[in-house]
Amino acid sequence: MGQEESHSEEMDTAQIQELCIMFMKECPSGSLHLHEFKRIFGVQSSSAEESLFLETIFHSFDTNQDNTLDFLEYVAALNLILRGNLEDRLKWSFKMYDKDGNGKLDRQEVKRIIKILYKIKLQTGGMEMTPSEICERLFELVDQNHDGQISLSEFMEGAQKDEWVMNLLKLDVNATSWVIQNCRRAP
User: Fold this and answer.
1) Are 185 and 87 in contact (CB under 8 A)?
2) Are 90 and 152 in contact (CB under 8 A)?
3) Could you tell me which CATH number the domain at 13-84+175-185 has?
């Protein structure tokens, strides 16, 4: 009995294998640097917001913090972005927001990601509030103990009880479609 697909454009095993083959061709040394990561996914320097967002993604998957992605980090990243369950994607999103790695989100960290997303989504007409308004509303809805910081548990609970919060916190910029589209364009 097969499982139903959760995304209409979920990548199949053959497409993931194609991405892995692309990794080996592009990075025979076994290490993928940020500029190569951007090139593979078709992000040019013309979009500062997309570039900064991709840098944030890259560093979130660089688990050993050596400023490269090895093959296992690359496969883990693809698996999470393309096939990860909601809980795993929320934990990854929390890690992306938590720039200083202290396990808590303050307003500055949240506002940093919101500003990047705001500029990306503004290009497609998807934002109605300012980054400051979004940040304040997020803290009102999610910071349960009102200490000015959001813990991982507050983050997870807040995302699951409010659809607006969920859409914001899971950093869903339609990653599956984006990866599929950009990998087909890649050299």
Assistant:
1) no
2) no
3) 1.10.238.10
Q: Where are the domains of the chain?
A: 13-84+175-185, 86-169
Strand, helix or coil at 32? strand
Write down the CATH number for the domain with range 86-169.
1.10.238.10
Q: What angle do CA 49, 86, 61 make, to 5 degrees?
A: 50
pTM of the model: 0.70
Residue of 34, 12, 36, 13 lying closest to 23 (CA atoms):
36
pLDDT tens readout for residues 122-151: 555 556 788 888 889 889 989 999 999 999
Host H or E run for residue 90: helix 86-97
Can you name the residues that pair with 31 across neighbouring β-strands?
70
Q: How far apart are CA 67 and CA 82, in angstroms?
A: 22
Q: What is each CA distance from 28 to 20, 25, 33, in whole angstroms?
A: 12, 6, 12
Does the CA dihedral 71-26-176-38 come out positive or negative? positive
Asked if domains 13-84+175-185 and 86-169 share a fold, the reply is: yes
User: HEC states along 170-183?
Assistant: CCCCCHHHHHHHHH
The per-residue pLDDT of the chain, averaged, comes to 77
Kindly tell me if the per-residue pLDDT of 19 is higher than 70: yes
